[in-house]
Amino acid sequence: MTTAATSWVEVPEGSHFPVQNLPYGVFARPRQAPRVGVAIGAHVLDLAGLAQAGLLPGPGWFAAPTLNAFMAAGPAAWRTARDRITELLADARHRRQVEPHLERQAAVELLLPFEVADYVDFYSSRDHASTVGQIFRPGSPPLPRNWLHLPAGYHGRAGSVVVSGTPVTRPRGQLLPAGAAAPVFGPTRRLDFEAEVGFVIGVGSPLGAAVAAGEFTQHAFGFVLVNDWSARDIQSWETQPLGPFLGKSFATSLSPWVLPVAALEAARVAPPRQDPPPLPYLRCEQPWGLDLALQIMLNDQILARPAFRGMYWTSPQQLAHATVNGAPLRTGDLFASGTVSGPGPDERGCLLEMTWDGTRPVMLPDGTTRAYLEDGDVVRITATAPGPDGTTIGFGSVEGRVAPAQPVDNPGHPQGA
Amino acid sequence: MTTAATSWVEVPEGSHFPVQNLPYGVFARPRQAPRVGVAIGAHVLDLAGLAQAGLLPGPGWFAAPTLNAFMAAGPAAWRTARDRITELLADARHRRQVEPHLERQAAVELLLPFEVADYVDFYSSRDHASTVGQIFRPGSPPLPRNWLHLPAGYHGRAGSVVVSGTPVTRPRGQLLPAGAAAPVFGPTRRLDFEAEVGFVIGVGSPLGAAVAAGEFTQHAFGFVLVNDWSARDIQSWETQPLGPFLGKSFATSLSPWVLPVAALEAARVAPPRQDPPPLPYLRCEQPWGLDLALQIMLNDQILARPAFRGMYWTSPQQLAHATVNGAPLRTGDLFASGTVSGPGPDERGCLLEMTWDGTRPVMLPDGTTRAYLEDGDVVRITATAPGPDGTTIGFGSVEGRVAPAQPVDNPGHPQGA
């Protein structure tokens, strides 16, 4: 066992946050300004406090309301900080100095960890794309004709990205009732979640320059869990010809903890074989499948356990594709994987798939059934991964409760302004 | 003639910037930090200098590299500032104090006027949407079935928005050659522009709250010209099922000047009649058609003169639609109109329409022809509008030169990192 294998901080059995993980987040003590911290067991380590005490380098990185300045500092700074934090938490000789900077996670508020620059959402699970194709285009080939050639994606609304725990108000919009000639206005009747994994950019790139797949670790800072809430009826009426818009833009939830790329080294596996072979700019020598075990809970009951390792397109391929036309990267750019679904019936990452667009409701262990989400429902997505030294690390969770829609008879601003 | 009808600053005949206009921008003197200014004739008035000299209120709004802080200050602050700047430029008694804060526009660099939060691109010209439908779906109804019910739109890449004058590198990507079974990688062969008009949000709105069409002037700060550069071959291969992505995300150019909403009062006209009548949330009592005369120049030769007043969906309707699901607004959110095209053959706002997807090249006055843009081509879009007192005001221009693509044999980063 190496020095780093245990911490003098007590880490409860089954915690997602042993000393091998050390994910970054932003927290606030009651009535205090937000600052950067690291999760360790049931605690958060106050990095701003450590830096102020001279125990950690990084002027201005940690006494900040977002991770963006630290993310922009680049791989050498990330490595130095992670090594030092590991040392402070692993070596009991630091306990006296460091312990005053620990807070119980339950005693602080966890905030959105970074300011999102652009948000791109991919569609990289072959099982998800195939099932959606069968549901919406029965009799046609299940995959769009470009799907095996490129990681399909689109831009989502960065301003709608919220941290886990933020209530999600049932969105209103235009819906086309079955058989109707014209749309009606009302709350979505087909509210869904999508379990996804995202990565966030630390180091940007200039306009006009493509970023190669092999440069992934020079730009990507870490990974988060994502719930890409979706209103299937709004989405299906609006989606031709310009793609998803209001059916997605009302809310996207993120886990409060960002797992550094370095924490996931032991989780890297070979991705599925790609046939046809992708164009050269999409080839990636290193294995960037990730062995993440997701779990989706609805009102504390397990709905599904999708495996991320089966995703057809990998994160470096997504990054190479998104920049091959010279689009620049900025610190805070968020790239989500698309719904994580596997081949099995218990591996589907959204209700659209699980219920075949609401036509085959699922039954929960307590006997209740769901076609789509109801008001008051709580969706919680968690994920774990192999860590170093045989440990298990995790993302914590991304969670949200469905709040009722604004009244339909108020066509505009709910505050009546 | 009112006091405000003329300025003691000389305004050249035909200038877009009489004292009735006063658009805001960000400029930098050589080797100095960017600051906020206002265009007057061939000059820019240094608002940071005026504020520092105590001639203008607004601590911190103008000694800033973007308009965002001033835009966030809201309609009362915008009105107070505009009234005071008008007074300073109209009343010759202020000349001695104000004149030291004038710079020739030719002597400064004009920068991107605001930091873009989210970028939404609409598709609001009926003529454009109909022509595109005929080109891409001959034999089908020219308009998508939802088009007359909602202002169709999608999110674009905010990080790719650049100021007029920025070279636009011909993007590379996946293209499907005619008759081919698999895509190839290479520079776009069908590079296009799209002449558009955008509005930018000053005052944001909270998550979960729709913004009514009638609240437009409480949120929108001003209008800009937009060139939404497009690679038609990349776009057509990728666009199903998620909409435009890399065919658009390589660059979007903005005019350096933002016309305040108040400057366009005299340009407001009734929009086209809408049949079927839109759903209640899309109704707008006030007339928000805008009588803007666009002109598109290719290498200094006139290509087209589209009229913005014919746009089917208005800016307040676009705003109401984009927020009806509770999506929040942020300062800097940019909403572009979509290609501005009219019914006439000389009113088409992009080459896709003018050349029927390259099959009917246009001939320029000098005898050269174009199917799509060639390397070295310069596209310049300008627009004028009726101002107060019978004046004509304008946007200046948004301009860009096409730079050659990165070499095809470099599949990744052009710097070879």
Secondary structure blueprint with pairings:
2 copies of one chain form a homodimer.
Chain A: E1 24-28, E2 35-40, E3 43-46, H1 47-52, H2 68-72, H3 75-90, H4 95-98, E4 102-104, E5 109-111, E6 119-122, H5 126-136, E7 153-156, E8 161-163, E9 168-169, E10 172-175, E11 184-187, E12 191-192, E13 195-201, H6 216-219, E14 220-227, E15 230-231, H7 232-238, E16 252-254, E17 259-260, E18 268-269, E19 289-290, E20 293-298, E21 301-304, H8 315-323, E22 334-336, H9 351-354, E23 362-363, E24 369-370, E25 378-386, E26 392-403
Parallel strand pairs in A: 6-22, 8-16, 9-26
Antiparallel strand pairs in A: 1-2, 1-5, 2-3, 3-4, 6-7, 10-11, 12-15, 13-14, 13-22, 14-16, 14-17, 18-19, 20-21, 20-25, 23-24, 25-26
How would you describe this protein?
The structure is a homodimer of 417-residue chains. Chain A has 417 residues and is an alpha+beta fold. Chain A is 16% helix and 26% strand. Chain A is built from nine helices and 26 strands. The first copy, chain A, has helices at residues 47-52, 68-72, 75-90, 95-98, 126-136, 216-219, 232-238, 315-323, 351-354; strands at 24-28, 35-40, 43-46, 102-104, 109-111, 119-122, 153-156, 161-163, 168-169, 172-175, 184-187, 191-192, 195-201, 220-227, 230-231, 252-254, 259-260, 268-269, 289-290, 293-298, 301-304, 334-336, 362-363, 369-370, 378-386, 392-403. In chain A, the strands form seven sheets. In chain A, strands 6, 7, 8, 13, 14, 16, 17 and 22 form an eight-stranded mixed β-sheet that branches. In chain A, strands 4-3-2-1-5 form a five-stranded antiparallel β-sheet. In chain A, strands 9-26-25-20-21 form a five-stranded mixed β-sheet, with no helix packed on it. In chain A, strand 10 (172-175) and strand 11 form a beta hairpin. Chains A and B meet through strand 7, strand 10, helix 7 and helix 8 of A and strand 7, strand 10, helix 7 and helix 8 of B.
